[in-house]
Amino acid sequence: MARKLNKDFYSLETITMAEQLIGKRLVHRLPDGTRLSGRIVETEAYIGLEDPCCHSFSGRPTPRTAVMFGSSGFSYIYFIYGFYFCMNVVAGNEGVPEAVLIRALEPVEGVDLMRAPRPLAPTHQLANGPGKLCQALRLGREQNALDLTNNSHLWIEEDVDQTDVVLIEGPRIGLSIQHDAAHWPLRFGWRGNPSLSPPKFPQEP
Protein backbone atom coordinates (compact mmCIF):
# COMPACT_ATOMS: atom_id res chain seq x y z
CA MET A 1 0.00 0.00 0.00
CA ALA A 2 1.29 3.48 -0.88
CA ARG A 3 2.48 5.65 1.98
CA LYS A 4 0.09 8.30 3.29
CA LEU A 5 1.45 11.82 3.42
CA ASN A 6 2.42 12.70 6.98
CA LYS A 7 2.71 15.82 9.13
CA ASP A 8 6.16 16.56 7.74
CA PHE A 9 4.64 16.98 4.29
CA TYR A 10 1.76 19.11 5.55
CA SER A 11 4.25 21.33 7.41
CA LEU A 12 5.66 22.52 4.09
CA GLU A 13 5.23 26.19 3.20
CA THR A 14 1.87 26.59 1.47
CA ILE A 15 3.06 27.36 -2.06
CA THR A 16 5.60 24.53 -1.87
CA MET A 17 2.84 22.17 -0.73
CA ALA A 18 0.63 23.25 -3.63
CA GLU A 19 3.44 22.39 -6.03
CA GLN A 20 4.37 19.10 -4.40
CA LEU A 21 0.79 17.83 -4.18
CA ILE A 22 0.91 17.51 -7.98
CA GLY A 23 1.40 13.81 -8.71
CA LYS A 24 0.06 12.62 -5.34
CA ARG A 25 -3.14 10.56 -5.10
CA LEU A 26 -6.32 11.66 -3.30
CA VAL A 27 -8.20 8.64 -1.92
CA HIS A 28 -11.74 8.36 -0.55
CA ARG A 29 -12.69 4.95 0.84
CA LEU A 30 -16.45 4.51 1.11
CA PRO A 31 -18.12 2.75 4.06
CA ASP A 32 -18.47 -0.43 1.96
CA GLY A 33 -14.72 -0.47 1.35
CA THR A 34 -14.80 0.83 -2.23
CA ARG A 35 -11.81 3.04 -3.03
CA LEU A 36 -12.31 6.09 -5.23
CA SER A 37 -9.11 7.87 -6.13
CA GLY A 38 -7.49 10.26 -8.55
CA ARG A 39 -4.04 11.64 -9.22
CA ILE A 40 -3.76 15.34 -8.34
CA VAL A 41 -2.82 17.28 -11.47
CA GLU A 42 -3.79 20.84 -10.51
CA THR A 43 -3.87 22.93 -7.32
CA GLU A 44 -4.23 26.53 -6.18
CA ALA A 45 -2.56 28.09 -3.13
CA TYR A 46 -4.42 30.49 -0.81
CA ILE A 47 -2.11 32.30 1.57
CA GLY A 48 -4.35 33.44 4.37
CA LEU A 49 -4.22 36.85 5.98
CA GLU A 50 -2.19 38.41 3.16
CA ASP A 51 -4.44 37.06 0.41
CA PRO A 52 -7.69 38.97 -0.28
CA CYS A 53 -8.97 35.95 -2.24
CA CYS A 54 -8.64 33.58 0.73
CA HIS A 55 -11.68 32.74 2.89
CA SER A 56 -9.68 33.53 6.04
CA PHE A 57 -8.51 36.98 4.90
CA SER A 58 -10.63 38.75 7.54
CA GLY A 59 -8.63 37.04 10.27
CA ARG A 60 -11.80 35.99 12.08
CA PRO A 61 -12.80 32.30 12.13
CA THR A 62 -16.35 31.50 11.06
CA PRO A 63 -18.18 28.18 11.37
CA ARG A 64 -17.12 27.44 7.80
CA THR A 65 -13.47 28.52 8.04
CA ALA A 66 -12.65 27.43 11.60
CA VAL A 67 -10.74 24.35 10.40
CA MET A 68 -8.34 26.63 8.50
CA PHE A 69 -7.17 28.18 11.77
CA GLY A 70 -6.15 24.79 13.20
CA SER A 71 -3.41 22.33 12.33
CA SER A 72 -2.28 21.73 8.78
CA GLY A 73 -3.13 18.46 7.04
CA PHE A 74 -6.89 18.63 7.60
CA SER A 75 -9.55 18.63 4.90
CA TYR A 76 -11.44 21.85 4.27
CA ILE A 77 -14.51 21.14 2.13
CA TYR A 78 -17.03 23.86 1.48
CA PHE A 79 -20.21 24.32 -0.55
CA ILE A 80 -20.24 26.84 -3.40
CA TYR A 81 -22.77 28.21 -5.89
CA GLY A 82 -25.51 26.21 -4.14
CA PHE A 83 -24.47 23.06 -5.96
CA TYR A 84 -20.76 22.16 -5.78
CA PHE A 85 -18.33 21.15 -3.06
CA CYS A 86 -14.64 22.06 -3.21
CA MET A 87 -11.83 20.09 -1.54
CA ASN A 88 -8.93 21.92 0.12
CA VAL A 89 -6.01 20.87 2.30
CA VAL A 90 -5.32 23.11 5.31
CA ALA A 91 -1.79 24.48 5.22
CA GLY A 92 0.28 26.81 7.38
CA ASN A 93 1.00 26.64 11.09
CA GLU A 94 -1.81 26.60 13.65
CA GLY A 95 -3.36 30.05 13.70
CA VAL A 96 -2.02 30.80 10.21
CA PRO A 97 -5.13 30.04 8.11
CA GLU A 98 -3.91 28.99 4.67
CA ALA A 99 -5.06 26.25 2.30
CA VAL A 100 -4.45 24.49 -1.00
CA LEU A 101 -7.42 23.90 -3.30
CA ILE A 102 -7.36 20.57 -5.15
CA ARG A 103 -8.49 21.81 -8.54
CA ALA A 104 -8.27 18.77 -10.84
CA LEU A 105 -7.65 15.02 -10.71
CA GLU A 106 -6.70 12.40 -13.24
CA PRO A 107 -9.16 9.56 -12.44
CA VAL A 108 -7.30 6.43 -11.37
CA GLU A 109 -9.50 4.07 -9.41
CA GLY A 110 -13.24 3.43 -9.07
CA VAL A 111 -14.37 6.90 -10.09
CA ASP A 112 -18.11 7.10 -9.50
CA LEU A 113 -19.33 7.45 -13.07
CA MET A 114 -23.00 7.58 -12.10
CA ARG A 115 -22.48 10.61 -9.89
CA ALA A 116 -19.90 12.36 -12.04
CA PRO A 117 -21.27 15.50 -13.73
CA ARG A 118 -21.02 14.07 -17.26
CA PRO A 119 -21.24 10.26 -17.07
CA LEU A 120 -20.61 9.82 -20.80
CA ALA A 121 -17.69 12.25 -20.95
CA PRO A 122 -14.15 11.04 -21.67
CA THR A 123 -12.50 9.73 -18.52
CA HIS A 124 -10.02 12.59 -18.35
CA GLN A 125 -12.92 15.07 -18.07
CA LEU A 126 -14.66 13.42 -15.12
CA ALA A 127 -12.67 15.25 -12.45
CA ASN A 128 -11.09 18.20 -14.28
CA GLY A 129 -12.52 20.85 -11.98
CA PRO A 130 -12.92 21.33 -8.21
CA GLY A 131 -16.67 20.66 -8.17
CA LYS A 132 -16.46 17.75 -10.60
CA LEU A 133 -13.75 15.96 -8.63
CA CYS A 134 -15.81 16.17 -5.44
CA GLN A 135 -18.78 14.66 -7.25
CA ALA A 136 -16.66 11.91 -8.80
CA LEU A 137 -15.05 10.98 -5.46
CA ARG A 138 -18.28 11.53 -3.44
CA LEU A 139 -16.80 14.23 -1.24
CA GLY A 140 -19.12 16.46 0.77
CA ARG A 141 -19.74 17.98 4.19
CA GLU A 142 -19.18 14.63 5.92
CA GLN A 143 -15.56 14.69 4.79
CA ASN A 144 -14.86 18.20 6.08
CA ALA A 145 -12.35 18.76 8.93
CA LEU A 146 -10.79 15.29 8.78
CA ASP A 147 -7.14 14.68 9.69
CA LEU A 148 -5.69 13.42 6.42
CA THR A 149 -2.68 11.88 8.18
CA ASN A 150 -4.59 9.26 10.15
CA ASN A 151 -8.11 9.02 8.75
CA SER A 152 -9.14 5.64 7.35
CA HIS A 153 -11.64 7.06 4.84
CA LEU A 154 -9.94 10.13 3.35
CA TRP A 155 -6.25 10.71 2.77
CA ILE A 156 -3.55 11.64 0.23
CA GLU A 157 -0.80 9.17 -0.60
CA GLU A 158 2.38 8.96 -2.60
CA ASP A 159 1.93 8.02 -6.24
CA VAL A 160 4.19 9.02 -9.13
CA ASP A 161 7.85 9.97 -8.77
CA GLN A 162 8.02 13.74 -8.29
CA THR A 163 10.78 13.98 -10.89
CA ASP A 164 8.23 12.87 -13.52
CA VAL A 165 6.05 15.91 -12.86
CA VAL A 166 6.63 18.96 -15.08
CA LEU A 167 5.02 21.96 -13.38
CA ILE A 168 3.27 24.84 -15.05
CA GLU A 169 1.88 27.89 -13.24
CA GLY A 170 -0.54 30.71 -13.80
CA PRO A 171 -3.17 32.93 -12.13
CA ARG A 172 -5.97 31.39 -10.11
CA ILE A 173 -9.37 30.85 -11.70
CA GLY A 174 -12.86 32.22 -11.10
CA LEU A 175 -11.90 35.02 -8.70
CA SER A 176 -13.42 38.46 -8.72
CA ILE A 177 -10.86 41.23 -9.04
CA GLN A 178 -9.58 42.01 -5.53
CA HIS A 179 -6.55 44.28 -5.79
CA ASP A 180 -3.99 42.30 -7.80
CA ALA A 181 -4.48 39.06 -5.84
CA ALA A 182 -6.66 37.49 -8.52
CA HIS A 183 -3.66 37.61 -10.84
CA TRP A 184 -1.06 36.12 -8.50
CA PRO A 185 0.56 33.02 -10.12
CA LEU A 186 -0.66 30.57 -7.48
CA ARG A 187 -2.30 27.98 -9.77
CA PHE A 188 -0.10 24.96 -10.44
CA GLY A 189 -0.59 22.11 -12.87
CA TRP A 190 1.06 19.14 -14.52
CA ARG A 191 2.08 20.40 -17.92
CA GLY A 192 0.34 18.59 -20.78
CA ASN A 193 -1.92 16.45 -18.60
CA PRO A 194 -5.34 16.01 -20.31
CA SER A 195 -7.15 16.26 -16.95
CA LEU A 196 -6.16 19.87 -16.30
CA SER A 197 -9.18 22.11 -15.76
CA PRO A 198 -10.18 24.84 -18.18
CA PRO A 199 -9.22 27.51 -18.99
CA LYS A 200 -5.74 26.67 -20.21
CA PHE A 201 -2.63 27.94 -18.44
CA PRO A 202 -1.04 30.88 -20.26
CA GLN A 203 1.97 28.77 -21.31
CA GLU A 204 -0.11 25.93 -22.82
CA PRO A 205 -0.31 25.73 -26.62
Helix proportion range: under 10%
Strand and helix order: HHEEEEEHEEE
Shape: globular
Ends apart, CA distance between termini = 37 Å
Major sheet summary line = 8 strands, antiparallel
How much is the radius of gyration in Å? 16 Å
Number of helices in the DSSP assignment = 3
Number of strands: 8
Summarize the structure in words.
Strand 4 and strand 5 form a beta hairpin. This protein is mostly beta strands. Strands 1, 2, 3, 4, 5, 6, 7 and 8 form an eight-stranded antiparallel β-sheet that branches. The longest helix is centred in the first third of the chain and has 7 residues, at 14-20. The model has no long low-confidence stretch (mean pLDDT 89). The relative contact order is 0.23. It is built from three helices and eight strands.
